[in-house]
Amino acid sequence: MNNKTFIIAELSANHNGSLEIAKQTICAAKEAGADAIKLQTYTADTMTINCKKDDFMISGGTLWDGKNLYELYEEAYTPWEWHKELFDTAEKEGLICFSTPFDISAVDFLEELNNPIYKIASFEIQDIPLIKYAASKGKPIIISTGIAKLDDIELAVKTCKDVGNNDITLLKCTSAYPAPVEEANLAMIKDLSERFNVKVGLSDHTLGITLPVVAVAMGATVIEKHFILDKSVGGPDSAFSLDKAEFTQMVKAVREAEKAIGKINYELTEKQQSSKKFGRSLYVVEDIKEGEQLSEKNTRSIRPGYGMHPKYYYDILGKKATQNIERGTALTDKHFN
Fold it and tell me: CATH number for the domain including 254?
């Protein structure tokens, strides 16, 4: 990751059970301007147990109400036997490919694939053994904070640092699918950066592209957004994912935001310098004869900017002209004494 915003296309479950769709999605993400494609490495059995007790049933107005957790993860997971081919596809496309492990066995599996970055999902921020093990591999760690209280974040960051891993990025995240814009609280980006002295970004589940642009303006260095080849493909995450056209638009807007932010600099660009001619300066606005005094009547601060700086206006009033001066002449110190 360099100074450019690192834009991650989250594949998640948007392959809808098809390896070919997954590979096509990676290629489309590259064309849309992503820097990386992110997978999720789990199975239903590494996430939970197949149980119909109330604790395991999904409810509360989500997209997945009525299923139990096991059924959701069984539908959404990316088969582990696909991973090498997906990593290879991304490499051919010039994309960084990395994954979110959901247990220690997933970390071991991803190490065999030389996974370059580890992402910790919002709902795993309390899984300290997982964070400790992933961080111990010495790779950059990205941690979503969607369900985290302050002490959760403090413990997660401390866990990484305790094993010597200081390459940490915290992602502001709202764990709702889709997430309402009014709950984004992007003001947290600056606070997270200053409080923990780490890189900060945004994992965005809203339906549009406004939040990534605002986040970059507020200091985000990473943007993660769910990406889908075509929303008609369907799947558990399709409703809050961007298609290729939308993702391309987001990347363009983020890159424009980066350019607009620029740097602190009070020097004028060449274009700004040339525009100074349209600014104000001191001009003779009525003909003045040699020996006549400069006055408020015959001298004014007007556009354009080829004359003396207006700050000298009161200094020159009452001075005598050393020559005849025609109306419309830019005033200089050669015109009076």
Answer: 3.20.20.70
